[in-house]
Queue: 2 jobs
Job 1
Amino acid sequence: MRVVFMGTPEFSVPSLEHLVLNQYQVVAVYTQPDKPSGRGCSLVYPPLKRAAETLNLPVVQPVRLKEAEVVSQLAGFHPDVIVVAAFGQILPQLILDMPAYGCINIHPSLLPKNRGASPVAAAILAGDEFTGVSIMLMDKGLDSGPILARAQIPISAQDTTGSLTAKLSLVAAHLLQEVLVHWLRGELTPQPQNETEATSSSLISKEEGEIDWHLPAIDIWRRVCAFQPWPGCYTKWQGKQLKIIEAVHLAEEGTLEVGRVVALLPTAERLEAAFGVHTGNGILGVLKVQLEGKQAMSGVEFFRGQRQFMGAILPY
């Protein structure tokens, strides 16, 4: 069984590693081109490339899959199946039709819910209690192909997009092994998605991380979780960006202005929130922050060192 694997971020790494561990013949790994990063603009490898090189697998990094020479090179690997996990490019029909067992996509949501680019963040933003992984047979649409299998996990109050994606990557790796065994034996019947239940998630922009304190505390808290590690949730303090890394939403009512910083007495609900910020509905208790140019620190440490912060009104 000749497998071509396509992916880019950390989410895709466990699935590739499990394929190799289970002795599938991975003939090539496709990932996005290296990208410049940092002040020196040095090239940074995609996480999947690092993993593939560690496993001594050939790596291909096409700028565009639809180029004739790229399609020809891929055909030369004679794949029986192509497995895709957050690759970042749309597969043209010529490639979708290439392998005998089709192109299989691993998507971190319970399809047809949260199709698109940011499914994990979308689940947190919506306040969903559960999310999961779907493995589907790819078609020309965006995450619209028939489903081969799903697996569901709960979303905890402590989950961020980073932590939840890591959990889902392990679920995906195990689910992929089950799917491949039964799919290759002809024991699975792909189930069409219900288009009436479909929702989508778009790419998140850096600007979405700026906090609007008029929003309810629960919505801001969900954004803090959903936008961690990127782009992060932030406000301004004394002309510098202040990232809110960890927080808790409090249902307490108040008559103070939106954006007003208040001291909080420690309780079990507030955990170790030394201060909170009044919102459009309730108070956002702040647990961990990072002031521009400084290391991340607990809200307690920050509040202790910023005497003028008490009573300040943060911009909104």
Job 2
Amino acid sequence: MLLDLFKGKKCFKLVCGAGNEDAIEVEKLVTLYSKAGCNFFDLCAKPEIVEAAKRGLKRAGISENRYLCVSVGIKGDPHVSKALIHSEECIKCGKCNSVCLQKALIEKADSYEVNTTRCIGCGRCVQDCPKKCIEMTSAFKDLKEVLPPIIEKGIDCIEFHALGENEDEVDEKWNDINSLFNGPLSICIDRSKLGNERVLKRINRMLEKRSPYTTIIQADGAPMSGGKDDFKTTLQTVAMAEIFQNAKLPVYLLLSGGTNSKSTELAKLCDINAGGVAIGSYARKIVREYIDRDDFLENEEAFSKALAIAKNLVDVSMEYLG
């Protein structure tokens, strides 16, 4: 059972990207990290992506104790947003391309264009564009339409990105998820717009609909910011987890948002009782040169090198969880 991983503090979650619609990349990532010991996979909420993840598990030859989760959010959530470049204003300086960890920029004759299949909505390109000609657009869809065909495919968890300031919309979507799915649910939340008091008020309201310890709180320190491997990058992750731990909520804690190989070590130093860690940007970055190869799944040498890197990340993370 999925929740048993959290009880035993043995959950390593690979975040493939809530907005990552690249089925080929997802299959590669799930194949690789499943072999490396990862036991929980976070996916874009599309049937074809769930199918790609299942192909990855089949390729790895490991399906027991491997679990799949899809992520959904509300309008304006960066996890369900895509970058849009206004090409007429673009000076083709290349700064957006240089900071995109997903390699989602396509070079054109006079500008860059976004490959929306690979874009995960991190916003790095928006921050670095000197002409301010890039904006984020919402890719949100009605959960009552999105979730049923995915649930039919067979998933183990749904993660709700409860970000943003609209309490009514959060409640509406949370009600929809609870009515459609009776398995474990995960709430991903940060305090960038809400503050500590409002975050806890929202979480407590959401937990009124749940039985004790059927919910995972993904303490998102700094969403999609884990490109570096140092303690400072993951500091907010641990600080966010401490807020929920101090509140003594009947949930399992998952470290997320700016996570890297230092996250569980810092959590242990700070006496955070986390049941697992979710790593996305950093986990994908360290194997990027290998998974971008067309022959990755057939090239034994390239796969073995990537596997050693991925396994080291999983092993180091799990060492400090226990």
